[in-house]
Every structure is written in structure tokens, then in C-alpha cells.
Amino acid sequence: MMRALLALLMAALPVAAPLRADAADAGLRITFASETRDFDAATLLTRPDARSITVPDDVAYRREMNFRAVPLLALLEGLPLARADTLETRATDGFVSQLPVSLVLKAKSGGAVPWLAVEDPGAPWPPLPGKSDSAGPFYIVWLEPERSGVRQEQWPYALAALTEVEAPARRWPQIAVDARLPPDASARHGQEVFIVQCLPCHRLRGGGEGDMGPDLAVPRSPTEYMTRAGLVAQIRDPKSLRSWPDQKMPGFSEAVLPAAEVDALIAYLRHMAHRRDAAARTAR
To answer: Which residues contact 245 (CB under 8 A, 6 or more apart)?
Structure first.
């Protein structure tokens, strides 16, 4: 459920893990429909709209951080954002998340403001807590994130590409709840939680881009072999269930994932397990 699991999984693979781009050579590619824009650190750092910003409680560094950054909306200027749904973010470490365009556009109406922080090759950022690499070469940070309810997984770091894509539930119909569920159904809300917090690392019935963790429906859903208390513990503090020296996955605190959202997520996973089994019966 968290990108930190990648290092553990890659250690077990026979192929080499993706190499982190050197900040001096790094580039960011934005692909929107048929248009592609490429940026490099040196050019971004000298743009007239580049600013020094202070992020009081940075998600990746877990403390106040100062960055040289460019407004993300300025890099997207002239693109048909009003007709777009989702920006898929890809990192140099393999992390893939889905960033709603509507969240980015809230900056125009008093919402949280997204910035692209750019690592200066001559003054690299410090390593992330517990890691050997920094959050560079590019990192989407937010000022006043509480204004738009920006989530932890919506601060993608080690960024390499932004690509316009369809909304996740249209792109991968197998992750969508039954259309007959009422709008206020807990499982429907759980789908939203899953897309933001879990889809970056986990697939569901094969849907998604994440390869850092296991599919949460195939071959079995964790709701089928774990108690509710065990699932909550796995989400909150994985080390409370099992621990080993190279364990990487942290937990979701109450501040990051409130109890009501944990309940909704579990309801979603149970619902999707039922849908999977119903589909299998129909296929027979």
C-alpha cells in the first residue's frame, strides 16, 4: 500500500531495479494527448516564475523544508485541462500514482497550490528519512494542502513523467464497484480511498499500474484470510503483525487515514471479493 515496499520487493527479483536518474541529467516529461513537453532541472531553476518556497510539514521529509520550485499550473499552461481527468505520475523508483486534474485546478479557486520542486544538482537535497536517495530530481509539493484535502500519496517524489490518462475506474473497469450501489454506500467511498492510497502500489483483479505490492483480490482478498482486527493492524502498523530486519512498509496513521476511511476500504475489499467470486460462478 505504500511505495516504500518497492525496495523489499525488488530485492527478491533477478532483474536490476530501476536506476535513479542523476539530478544533473534528469528530465521531466509531460505528455498530454498528442503534445509532449520536456523539461530539465537547469532550465526550470532559471525560469522567471521559479520561487523559493517553504513547506511547513513536508510529507516525504516529515519536517519543514525549503525548495526552489515552479508552479505546476504554469508547466501545464495551454493544455486542455478542463477536458482532462487524471494525471498519472511516474517516478524513477517505479512508483505510479493517479493525480486528479480537478485537484490541481482547485488552486485557481482558493484551493491547495501544487508546485514542482526542482533539485539543484549543485546543492542536492538531503536523503529521505531512512533512505540513501533524496526526493529529487523533481517532487510535487503542496502549499496549504488542507484546503483541498490533499493526501499523502498525492505528493509524488523522484518524479520522471506526468501523463494524461483516463479516470482509474474507466481505465480499469475491474476495480469499480457495482454500479447499482447507492451513492452513499461505504464500499463506493472505499473505492475512492483505494484509488488514492492503495492503487499506487497494489493492483486489484489485475487493474492498476502498481507492482510494489500484491494484487488485493487475486488469488484471494485479504478480507478472506484475515480478521477485521488483523486488517486494521496491517494498515495501521504492519510491524505489529510480523517484523523482519529489512521490512519497509510503514503504516497509515489516523491522521493520514481516519477510522471511517479504513472501514470504507475494508468494505470495498469485501465487496470486490464478492464481485470476483460472482463473476467466476457466472463464467462456469
So the answer is: none
pLDDT tens, position by position, 36-75: 999 999 999 999 999 999 999 999 999 999 999 999 999 9
- Same domain for 89 and 202, yes or no, is no
Full residue range of the structural domain in which residue 96 is found:
5-165
Q: What are the residues facing 122 on neighbouring strands?
A: none
Final residue in a domain of this structure, among 113, 147, 165: 165
Spell out the alpha helix ranges (H) of 65-185: 72-75, 101-105, 168-171
- Identify whether the C-beta of residue 67 lies closer than 8 Å to the C-beta of residue 116: no
Question: Which of residues 138, 165, 192 is at a domain's end?
Answer: 165
Q: In Å, how far from its chain's centre is CA 129?
A: 18
Q: pLDDT grade, residue 33 (50/70/90)? A: confident
Q: Are residues 76 and 203 in the same domain?
A: no
